[in-house]
Specification:
Length: 177
């Protein structure tokens, strides 16, 4: 692929997949830390970086939402805020990321690129924000995706999980020789 001909699919899906895979590893490391330290995973699920921030549970839901659901939003023309999934436990959060990864993998270049110039309606309170599909992903969902991944990472680090930058980056897409 020439970088001059990069498509919306090229610019989003591989990076979503790389980071969702990294999130699976980060969450697994968090669970291993709980087993080793005696920390209750339910405590991790409700941990916040600050009192006015959402807990880990919301961060993980938002990672799934701003990847798999955002891609669906571009393809359907409609996006809403993250759903209230109720009190999810740690394994349910792990399953949510695995499910998001599978949904992102299923998006074809034709589906996403064909919707790149379409309109995405995003109702917020008493108004509707309207985006062009590509702008919705690149200016709204991608930044939100990485914010919530970073916040998940930060919460787990704050609770003593031994994570490093390599865990956050995941498997790099290196040039084959």
């Amino acid at each position: 692929m020439s970088r001059a001909t990069m498509t919306l699919h090229d610019a989003t899906v591989p990076s979503f997949l790389q980071t969702l895979e990294a999130m699976q590893g980060i969450l697994e490391r968090g669970l291993s830390h709980c087993r080793e330290s005696g920390l209750d995973p339910a405590e991790l699920v409700e941990t916040r970086l600050a009192p006015d921030m959402h807990p880990l549970r919301f961060q993980v839901i938002s990672v799934a939402h701003h990847s798999a659901t955002a891609l669906q939003g571009v393809m359907t023309g409609n996006f809403t805020g993250p759903p209230d999934l109720g009190p999810l436990d740690y394994p349910a959060l792990q399953a949510l990321i695995a499910e998001a990864r599978a949904k992102v993998q299923a998006v074809t270049p034709e589906q996403l690129n064909g919707a790149a110039d379409g309109v995405v309606n995003f109702p917020v309170r008493d108004r509707v924000m309207r985006f062009v599909g590509a702008d919705f992903l690149l200016s709204f969902s991608v930044p939100n995706f990485y914010f919530h991944v970073s916040t998940t990472y930060a919460i787990l680090r704050m609770k003593g999980v031994g994570l490093g930058k390599r865990d956050y980056l995941g498997k790099l897409r290196l040039k084959a020789d």
